[in-house]
Structure formats: structure tokens, C-alpha cells
């Protein structure tokens, strides 16, 4: 992330920007006044880039407690006549959806743009939800850029459209667009006076009449989409085969057409305004085409809507064959409708649909070399590893088959080997606590296992508090463990209400976790997970007896700690290591399994990979014989 | 009797001891192994080490072993006294006033001896029990202050031998143990492994002070105690008639019937009320407040007690002739009960040669003989 380029005041200059940087730049060039977000991959960096220009351009920037509140705040700015932006990942849009479906019935005022990050293949997510459907449910326009250059321009145009139709406009970004860089021409930063106010006539009330307005506004957006510069066509006047593509897939399609030498028969219609569709434009190219291929990630959103359009205009469009997810011709990397698209898969789909023509055959592009399979693991020194070890030990000690419930965060990895396979449920942020609250009532049906819900500190503020109130009030039995690493680690260390800083690092007054939990009249204990034995005792004690209890396992994320930690070195004194023998059996490398604990085959002893060791020293505190040494560097004198 | 061959490993420890309610929470296995942890008085295998064979099984006081073998290992000969175990002397004793901690259970002999052994350089650490009476915890003391902090009996079973891991990690080579009789047995079994040149798990304790113990309580007793008093408990004492609990809000008397349900099940099959394998064993006198019963058993124990006496750390006087029969009777009753309980079990942990068994079973005779001799 290069915030310098985002705030560079050099109109006309060409800059290499990632999609996230481009969105931020576009928003700043559009004169955004208010930006609020909850961090989520792949769009987490957008707000940080805007924050870099906040002071210079007078933008209010906020890491909000969750996406719904972020969107509500952005809506407020719009109501007061300002331009506002809110950013979230698709899961976050689910959280905000209740508000969004109301908001679009009552309408907005100042331009309001919603950036939603979808993660096809779920590179850093739990699901690959296609958020375009939600935009449609909410009756708002949905646009999709194919690269950063376009993303920047789209954001600016989206503000204009939003002000024109008085509705928020959603821009759907996919991971590849967010993270890949392309050149974009920098524009000017507007210097305009703003004065926020709501006049007596500015009312925004959700009621059924709003539905008619929603439909009218969508018609206006569709009308404007016919002329949108974001919908482009390349190919013959009357294509035999029409590829309808959106997002990065449109480039794969153009490339495949060129590679296969199909330029004279195949045209590519690249859609930027995915919803509502530019129907006239589509009909114009559907008419001549005998075959239509859909290229989009992840679900058949355009495919379904275009096929419905074709059915409606059957007389005009005539017989056409459709190829895409429904027909099974266009597959993502994990199967039809599953995972990201790749250039080679689009090439294969095109070759397949356009018939086997030897002249078109090209040697298959080289595949990726097979990489050795590697478990996802907590980072070296990660406090979560120690926490999960303590939880596991405590539940084994308890012996009643305790159940651990998880949710979204780095600690999701607790479902795998690195977390001793502890997690038995994993859904949405905070859901583990809601589920625990339910399990905590099942004693009346014979349920006698302890339930432990693990949540992150950021998640706690985001989504856990109502579930805890529910549990405490209704007298559920379970333990909620807050893995407090003092940051939003998974998405890149954004602050949250417990950290006491704003997006630019300026001080705010923190709301301590303990204060919130105590305020709910729930007993709370704080332990350091690096003190593994104490942590075990705390969990064990907590799962005994009824009621809801909270344990805070507090220890800064190892990646932050590593930057500030003292000059120490951790190594194995192999003369003391018991290795395979009874009383150890390779405990550090085989069981605790921090990636820095490795097995020295030649010596039959353990070793520390000092290149990746974060020097937390937890393995040293667990080694049964003290073979792992944490050595303080000598301060150099003179 | 032919005994079934079993692989002496963690699975068997889990099945025969832990799952069978026979674990005394001595903490030995947890002190040998990172896969075995404890919470309160529960000791459990929390992760499989993958080995079939283990020192955990071999040094547990509740896996099969022969008592005569241990007597020979520790004292060089089988016991002559089948009620109190091998001993050289038995005294009343107390710590000199200057070295007696305020919180001492009775005469503070235990605390004083440990501190004296430190001064003499005999030991470099001590595995003790500290914390509160409601929530006692294993403590590894390496200073007199640390030792004094642990004064006073906590009647819960505490797996304090688990701290052998910490002792080993921190490089201690001559730690002492103060422990319940089961803990003393565990330490002796560990020392037996070392003598047999088994894969040595590290230095075994150097000095073993045993406490008399007719039973210890489960951790659940704490909750019961806090339900009976909101004040902090400062001391607990068990007399033949009642359990006296001193609190910051005044004393509280519990009947033995109230306390009995909390006795650890494993204690009902414990054959050793007076730490028969210790270097010295310390108990109450049940007669003279502020004094201990001190049983000197091994040569090392004798030497330590003599030196402590010479150094005026201990005050010693002859054991009351009228008390001895009572102590022996109490020990005998316990042993007899336990033998009866064990007799019904398919494979009892305790193996006793015939003469050891007869000595308890033929009790009436023995007791009469004894009275005849001592009166
Ligand atoms: C569970 C238990 C049951 C006992 N039952 C009897 C009995 O029936 N009859 C009898 O005469 N004496 C019994 N005792 C022994 C008695 O209570 C005194 O501990 C002993 O007389 C030593 O007294 P002292 O004044 O020398 O102790 P102090 O100088 O006060 O030292 C006490 C020592 O005991 C250790 N300790 C405290 N609690 C425990 C524990 N739970 N496990 C292991 N070590 C511990 C401490 O670390 C300390 O070193 C029992 C002790 C325990 C712990
Ligand atoms: S835990 Fe300690 S003894 Fe065991 S393999 Fe690692 S360094 Fe060696
Ligand atoms: S009695 Fe001691 S060694 Fe045996 S299982 Fe229990 S704690 Fe472990």
C-alpha cells in the first residue's frame, strides 16, 4: 500500500495504483467528505489510503465498530448534503443489509458510494459470496470495474449518479482488482466549501411508497447505463458469438479471442454497469449473435439477468444458445460457479464453444508448478497458538468433551492442526457467542458439555456485545474467551475501540474490554496466554459451574510485538533436548508446532528456525527440560 | 500370583489410574511430561505423546508395585514395623522460636528443616504447596521467604510434584520435596527408575519430607467452604472430632460427616498414613499444641535432624509413651480397611509379600503383644 501516490497533488501525472488505492484516489478526486469502514479483505486498505489525505483535504475518516454503523454514518453525511463513502467486504454488506434495504427506500442526498470487496476463491475470507445480488435486493445500482484505472473513474462517476438518482451506488470490487496495479491518470482534488445541514424538508423515512421511487430511480439508472463509458464493445459489427463479461474476466476474454484468432467472429461486450442492465445495448448485440458466452465471477448474475432479458425479447433476438455456468461451459478454478476465473479457463471455454478448429489451436499455456502442500498455521510467536493450547489442555482436563465455537479472524485457523483442531463451528463474526448462548440453554435437554466461544478483540466490539447481553440476561452457561491481540490483525492491524487511536494514529479514548464486560454484569478475568499454565487454570476454572463468564487472553499480535521486542535470541541447547525420548517425544516441533520449532533430523534433536522465530519464548516455557533457551543480548557498551 | 503383562504406558495410566478414580493428584506424571497437565486436583493427559511405554506409568504411586521392593530400595531392608514403617526414632519436635513461621501448621518442623537444608547446601529448591487454603497451588521455593510462604497445611490434594518440570527447566539439580505419602512413594519410584538406568528423566529429588496423611480433599471442597463462610480462611486443622476452620471472621467448626464426602476416592485405598518411605515424616501430636510428631526414617533424615538439633533449629523431646499405641492403632485401622478394600479388586496397585499382609491381618495378636510390651 502506497498512500503517497494516493495523495499526490499532481494532476495529469500517471501513477501505478492498486485497485484499493485507485478507489481511494477516486473518492478524494470526487471530493468525498466522510469515509467510514470496518476492515475486511480485500478492500481493507481503501480507508487507510483515504486517511492519508484526510487532513490535507478535510475528510472525516472513521474505523467504525461494524459495517452497519459505518454505513449509517456515511448515510448521515449524505443526508446533510455531503459526499460519503463506506467500504466493506461482502460479509460486511450482509451485516449492513438491513439498513441498506431501508436506506434505498428513503433515498439519499449527497453522493453516497458503497465499496464492497468480494473475494472469489475466498483467499482471505470464509466464503466467496457474490454481493451483486444484495445490491439488486436493495434496489441500488451495482458497478464492476475491471482494473484500477477504471475503478478510479467509476468511483467519481458513481458519486454523480448517486446525486442524480438520490440513491447510494455500489461498486463491487474483486480481489484481483483490489490488489493488482495498473496505471491511472491522476486528476485534480476539488477545493470546495461544504456546509453540512439538514433542512426541514430533508426527510428520510422508510415507508412503502418508497418502493415505487426505488423502481423509478433504477429505471433512470438503467437509462444512463445505456450511454455509460464503462460498457464497451470490441469486435465485429454483427458478432456470431458474443462474450458478455464483467470484472477482470473481460480482459481474459479479450485475450482469449486474440489468442484463438477469433476476432472476426467473436465480440466482447464488457459490462461495467452490472445492475441495472443497459438493456438496449445488450439487445443490439444479442440480435446478431447465435452464441452467447458469459464471463463473470462468481455466480451467474449477469447470465441469469441477460437470459431473462433474451426470453422477454425472444421475437427480436431469436434463437440464441447461451454458454456459461448454467451450461457448464465456463468454470472457475474450483469448478462451475466455484472460485476465481483464470485466463486459461476462459480460453478453454471459448475454444470449446467456438468449435474445434485446428487453425485456432494453441499450445496449452504452461501450468503452475506443483507447490508442496502446506498447512495454514498461526505465525511464529502468535499468542493464539498458546491460547488454543491452553484451551485444549483445560478442556481435556475437564474431560466432558468441551466444545469450542469460533468465528472469523486469524483464530479461524484454530479449526486446523495449528489450533489443535479445536473449532467445531465457524460462521459469521460473533456467531460463536450466539451459538454458545444457545448451547448454554440446552442443559434442560441433557446437554452437559462445556461450551467455549473464542472471539477476537475487534470482533468483540463488532458483533459480540448483543450476544453476551442475551446470554447473561437469559442465564446461559458458557465461557467466552476474547483473544485480545490489541489490533484487527487479520486485515492488517487496523485500530478498534479498544486500541485508543484513530485511522491516522491520533489518540482517542479507548473503551477497555473489561469495562464493557463488567458493565454487562458478567465476571471477567484477564490472563496472558504466554503464561500457559495460568491460562489453563483460568479456562478450567471458568468452565466449572454455571453462568456466562468472560476470559480475556491478552497479548499483542506477534507481528507487532516482533517489531518492538527486546533483543533476545531463542535457541535449543541440543545437549539438553530430550528429542524422541519419553518425557518429550518432540513436543515442540511435533505438537506445539510453532513454525519456528523445527526438527533437526541429523542430530535427532529440536532446533529453532531463527529466521522466522518471533522470540516470544512460549516454547521455552513449555519445553519439559528447559532445553530451549531465551537469551538476552548483551547491551553493547561504548 | 501371575500378573497380566501390560505395556507400562500413558494409555494404561489413563485407564487404570485416572479413569478409575485412583489418581491421588500427586503430580508426578505431570512433573515428567509436557502432555500431562493439571487443574485443581485433576491430572489428565491432554495430548497423546504417541509412546507406548512411559515413565509416567512406572513412577505413579498407583500403578502396580511391590512395597517390600521399595523398602529395600530406600532403607536397604524390608520393614520390621508394619504399622509405622521403617524408622530410627520418633519424637515430639518443634522449630526453635526464631525460625518458626507464624503460619506454621503445628511446630513448624517441616518449614524449619527445609530452610535448614537450604542453609546447609543440601538442596537447591523445594517443591511445596502454597497459595490460599481455598485455592492451594504447587510452589517451587528457592529462598527462605518462599519456603515460609508455604507454611501451613492445605488439606486439598495438590499435584505439587508437577513442579518437577519447572525445577528441571530452571536447572535445579537437588530439589527437596515436602509431600503427602503418595507423593513420597512417587518420588521413591522415580528414584528407582534412575537406579535401574531407565531413560533418566532428570535429577530426582534429594530430600523427601513426608507429611502424615489419612486423606486429602477434592478441589470441590473449596466451593463448599466458601459456601459456609464469606471470610478468608486462615487455617484449618483436622482433629479426631471435628474440622476447625479459622477465618478472618472467626472460627468455624465442620463435622467430619460434612467433610467426608469430599475425600478423594483414591485416599480410601491408600495404605500409607505416615509417609513410610520418607527421609523424615512429620505429623501432629494430637496432644501438645505447637508441637509435631517427627518420625526419623532414613540415614539422611537422621543426619539432617541431628544437625538441625545441634544448630538449635529444632527442639526435640521424647515421644509420649501413651501416644504411641494410639498412633499405631490409627495406622493399623487405616491399613486394615485398605487391605479389605483392595482385596476385592482384580489387580490392586499394591503388592505385599505374605508377611506384610499377615502383619496387618493378624492384628489382634500383634496389638495385644504390643500393649503387653509397652505397658
Ligand atoms: C492433606 C494433608 C492431610 C494431613 N493429614 C494429617 C493427619 O491426618 N494427621 C497428622 O498428624 N498430620 C496430617 N497432616 C500433616 C500436618 O497437617 C502438618 O502438615 C504436619 O504436621 C507438618 O506440620 P508443620 O508445623 O511442620 O508444618 P509447616 O512448617 O507449616 O509446613 C507445612 C508444609 O506442608 C506443605 N503442604 C501444605 N499443604 C500441603 C499439601 N496439601 N500437600 C503437600 N504438602 C503440603 C507446605 O508446603 C509446607 O512445607 C496432613 C497434611 C496434609 C497436607
Ligand atoms: S520440547 Fe524441548 S526437549 Fe522436547 S524436542 Fe523440543 S527442545 Fe527438545
Ligand atoms: S497418582 Fe500421581 S502419577 Fe499417578 S496418575 Fe495421579 S498424578 Fe499421575
Features:
heterodimer; A: 638 residues; alpha/beta; Rossmann fold; 4 domains; six-stranded parallel sheet; 24 strands; 36% helix; globular; B: 375 residues; 2 domains; eight-stranded mixed sheet; disordered N terminus; binds flavin-adenine dinucleotide; binds iron/sulfur cluster
What does this protein structure show overall?
The complex is a heterodimer of chains A (638) and B (375). Chain A is built from 22 helices and 24 strands. In chain A, helix 17 (457-473) links the parallel strand 17 and strand 18 (478-484). Chain A starts with a helix and ends in a 6-residue tail after the last strand. In chain A, strands 3-2-4-5-7-6-12 form a seven-stranded mixed beta sheet, with helices on both faces. Chain A has 638 residues and is an alpha/beta fold. Chain B has two domains: 10-218 and 263-374, no CATH class; 219-262. In chain B, a hairpin with a 2-residue loop joins strand 10 and strand 11 (250-255). The chains are: A alpha/beta (638), B alpha/beta (375). The interface between A and B is medium-sized, with 27 and 29 residues. Residues 104-111, 128-129, 136, 150-156, 158, 160, 178-180, 211-214, 216, 238, 282-284, 292 of chain B line the site of flavin-adenine dinucleotide. Residues 13, 17-18, 23-29, 43, 60-62, 159, 186 of chain B line the site of one iron/sulfur cluster.
Could you write a compact summary of the structure shown?
With 638 residues, chain A is an alpha/beta fold.
Q: Major sheet of chain B: order of its strands?
A: 6-5-7-8-12-13-4-14
Assembly status: heterodimer
Beta-strand segment tally of chain A: 24
* Poorly predicted runs of 5 or more residues of chain B: 1-5
Largest interface, with counts of residues having CB < 8 Å to the other chain, equals: A-B, 27 and 29 residues
Architecture of the largest domain in chain A, according to CATH?
Answer: 3-Layer(aba) Sandwich
> Strand pairing plus helix content of chain B: what structural class?
alpha/beta
Total domain modules of chain B = 2
- CATH fourth-tier homologous superfamily of the largest domain in chain A: Thiamin diphosphate (ThDP)-binding fold, Pyr/PP domains
Coarse structural class of chain A: alpha/beta
Total count of helical runs of at least 4 residues of chain A: 22
Number of helices of chain B: 14
Give me the strand/helix succession of chain B. HHEEHEHEHEEHHEHEHEEEHEEHEHEHH
Kindly report the CATH topology of the largest domain in chain A.
Answer: Rossmann fold
Distance between the termini of chain A: 39 Å
Characterize the main sheet of chain A. Answer: 7 strands, mixed
Amino acid at each position: 500500500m502506497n498512500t503517497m501516490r494516493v495523495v499526490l497533488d499532481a494532476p495529469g501525472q500517471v501513477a501505478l495504483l492498486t485497485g484499493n488505492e485507485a478507489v481511494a484516489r477516486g473518492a478524494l478526486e470526487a471530493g468525498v467528505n466522510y469515509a467510514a469502514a470496518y476492515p475486511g479483505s480485500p478492500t481493507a486498505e481503501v480507508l487507510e489510503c483515504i486517511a492519508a489525505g484526510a487532513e490535507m483535504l478535510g475528510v472525516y475518516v472513521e474505523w467504525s465498530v461494524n459495517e452497519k454503523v459505518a454505513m449509517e454514518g456515511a448515510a448521515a453525511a449524505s443526508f446533510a448534503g455531503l459526499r460519503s463513502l463506506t467500504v466493506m467486504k461482502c460479509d460486511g454488506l450482509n451485516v449492513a443489509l438491513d439498513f441498506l434495504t431501508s436506506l434505498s427506500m428513503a433515498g439519499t442526498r449527497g453522493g453516497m458510494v458503497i465499496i464492497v470487496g468480494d473475494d472469489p476463491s475466498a483467499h482471505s475470507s470464509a466464503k466467496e459470496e457474490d454481493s451483486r445480488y444484495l445490491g439488486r435486493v436493495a434496489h441500488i445500482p451495482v458497478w464492476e470495474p475491471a482494473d484500477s484505472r477504471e475503478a478510479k473513474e467509476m468511483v467519481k462517476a458513481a458519486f454523480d449518479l448517486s446525486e442524480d438518482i438520490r440513491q447510494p451506488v455500489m461498486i463491487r470490487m474483486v480481489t484481483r482488482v483490489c490488489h493488482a496495479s495498473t496505471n491511472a491518470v491522476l486528476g485534480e482534488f476539488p477545493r470546495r466549501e461544504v456546509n453540512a445541514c439538514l433542512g426541514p424538508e430533508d426527510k428520510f423515512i422508510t415507508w412503502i411508497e418508497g418502493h415505487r421511487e426505488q423502481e423509478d430511480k433504477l429505471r433512470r439508472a438503467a437509462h444512463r447505463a445505456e450511454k455509460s463509458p464503462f460498457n464497451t464493445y470490441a469486435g465485429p459489427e454483427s458478432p456470431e458469438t458474443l462474450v458478455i463479461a464483467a470484472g477482470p474476466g473481460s480482459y481474459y476474454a479479450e485475450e482469449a479471442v486474440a489468442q484463438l484468432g477469433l476476432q472476426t467472429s467473436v465480440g466482447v461486450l464488457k459490462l461495467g454497469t452490472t445492475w441495472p442492465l443497459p438493456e438496449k445495448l445488450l439487445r443490439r448485440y444479442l440480435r446478431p449473435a447465435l452464441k452467447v458466452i458469459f464471463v463473470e465471477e462468481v455466480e451467474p448474475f449477469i447470465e441469469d439477468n441477460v437470459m431473462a432479458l433474451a426470453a422477454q425479447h425472444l421475437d427480436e433476438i431469436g434463437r440464441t444458445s447461451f454458454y456459461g455456468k448454467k451450461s457448464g461451459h465456463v468454470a472457475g478454478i474450483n469448478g462451475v460457479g466455484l472460485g476465481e476465473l483464470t485466463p486459461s479457463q476462459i480460453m478453454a471455454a471459448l475454444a470449446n464453444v467456438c468449435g474445434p478448429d485446428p487453425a485456432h489451436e494453441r499450445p496449452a499455456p504452461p501450468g503452475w508448478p506443483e507447490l508442496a502442500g502446506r498447512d495454514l498455521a498461526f505465525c511464529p510467536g502468535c499468542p493464539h497458538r498458546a491460547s488454543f493450547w491452553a484451551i485444549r489442555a483445560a478442556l481435556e482436563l475437564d474431560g466432558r468433551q468441551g466444545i469450542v465455537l469460533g468465528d472469523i479472524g486469524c483464530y479461524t485457523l484454530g479449526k486446523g492442526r495449528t489450533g489443535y483442531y479445536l473449532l467445531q463451528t465457524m460462521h459469521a463474526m460473533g456467531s460463536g457467542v450466539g451459538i454458545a448462548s444457545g448451547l448454554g440453554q440446552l442443559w434442560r435437554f441433557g446437554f452437559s458439555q462445556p461450551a467455549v466461544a473464542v472471539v477476537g478483540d475487534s470482533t468483540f466490539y463488532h458483533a459480540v456485545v448483543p450476544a453476551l447481553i442475551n446470554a447473561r440476561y437469559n442465564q446461559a452457561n458458557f465461557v467466552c474467551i476474547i483473544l485480545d491481540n490489541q489490533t484487527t490483525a487479520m486485515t492488517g492491524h487496523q485500530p478498534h475501540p479498544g486500541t485508543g487511536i484513530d485511522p491516522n494514529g491520533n489518540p482517542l479514548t479507548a473503551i477497555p474490554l473489561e469495562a464493557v464486560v463488567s458493565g454487562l454484569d458478567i465476571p471477567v478475568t484477564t490472563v496472558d496466554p504466554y503464561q500457559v499454565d495460568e491460562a489453563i487454570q483460568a479456562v478450567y476454572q471458568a468452565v466449572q459451574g454455571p453462568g456466562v463468564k468472560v476470559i480475556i487472553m491478552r497479548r499483542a499480535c506477534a507481528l507487532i510485538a516482533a517489531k518492538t521486542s527486546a533483543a533476545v535470541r531463542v535457541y535449543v541447547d541440543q545437549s539438553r533436548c530430550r528429542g524422541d525420548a519419553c518425557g518429550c517425544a518432540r513436543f515442540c516441533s511435533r505438537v506445539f508446532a510453532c513454525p519456528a520449532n523445527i526438527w533437526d533430523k541429523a542430530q535427532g534433536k529440536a532446533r529453532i528456525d531463527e529466521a522466522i522465530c518471533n522470540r516470544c519464548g512460549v516454547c521455552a516455557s513449555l519445553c519439559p527440560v528447559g532445553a530451549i533457551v531465551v537469551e538476552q543480548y548483551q547491551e553493547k557498551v561504548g | 500370583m501371575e500378573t497380566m503383562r501390560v505395556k507400562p504406558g500413558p494409555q494404561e495410566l489413563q485407564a487404570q489410574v485416572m479413569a478409575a478414580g485412583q489418581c491421588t493428584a500427586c503430580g508426578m506424571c505431570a512433573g515428567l511430561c509436557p502432555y500431562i497437565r493439571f487443574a485443581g486436583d485433576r491430572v489428565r493427559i491432554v495430548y497423546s505423546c504417541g509412546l507406548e511405554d512411559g515413565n509416567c506409568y512406572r513412577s505413579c504411586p498407583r500403578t502396580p508395585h511391590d512395597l517390600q521392593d521399595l523398602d529395600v530400595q530406600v532403607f536397604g531392608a524390608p520393614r520390621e514395623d508394619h504399622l509405622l514403617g521403617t524408622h530410627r526414632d520418633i519424637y515430639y519436635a518443634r522449630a526453635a522460636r526464631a525460625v518458626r513461621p507464624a503460619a506454621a501448621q503445628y511446630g513448624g518442623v517441616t518449614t524449619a528443616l527445609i530452610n535448614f537444608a537450604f542453609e546447609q547446601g543440601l538442596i537447591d529448591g523445594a517443591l511445596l504447596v502454597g497459595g490460599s487454603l481455598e485455592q492451594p497451588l504447587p510452589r517451587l521455593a528457592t529462598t527462605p521467604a518462599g519456603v515460609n510462604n508455604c507454611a501451613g497445611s492445605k488439606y486439598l490434594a495438590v499435584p505439587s510434584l508437577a513442579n518437577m518440570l519447572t525445577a528441571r527447566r530452571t536447572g535445579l539439580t537437588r530439589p527437596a520435596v515436602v509431600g503427602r505419602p503418595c507423593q513420597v512413594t512417587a518420588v521413591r519410584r522415580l528414584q528407582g527408575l534412575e537406579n535401574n538406568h531407565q531413560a533418566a528423566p532428570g535429577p530426582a529429588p534429594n530430600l523427601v519430607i513426608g507429611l502424615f496423611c489419612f486423606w486429602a480433599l477434592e478441589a470441590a471442597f473449596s466451593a463448599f467452604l466458601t459456601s459456609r463462610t464469606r471470610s478468608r480462611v486462615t487455617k484449618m486443622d483436622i482433629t479426631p472430632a471435628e474440622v476447625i476452620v479459622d477465618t478472618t471472621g472467626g472460627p468455624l467448626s465442620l463435622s467430619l460427616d460434612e467433610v467426608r464426602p469430599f475425600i478423594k476416592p483414591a485416599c480410601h485405598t491408600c495404605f500409607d498414613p505416615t509417609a513410610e518411605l520418607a527421609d523424615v515424616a512429620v505429623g501432629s501430636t494430637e496432644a501438645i499444641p505447637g508441637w509435631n510428631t517427627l518420625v526419623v526414617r532414613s540415614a539422611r533424615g537422621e543426619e539432617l535432624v541431628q544437625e538441625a538439633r545441634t544448630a538449635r533449629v529444632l527442639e526435640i523431646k521424647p515421644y509420649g509413651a501413651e501416644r504411641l499405641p494410639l498412633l499405631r492403632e490409627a495406622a493399623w485401622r487405616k491399613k486394615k480397611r485398605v487391605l479389605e478394600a483392595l482385596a476385592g479388586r482384580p489387580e490392586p496397585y499394591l503388592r505385599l509379600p505374605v508377611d506384610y499382609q499377615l502383619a496387618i491381618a493378624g492384628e489382634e495378636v500383634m496389638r495385644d503383644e504390643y500393649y503387653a510390651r509397652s505397658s
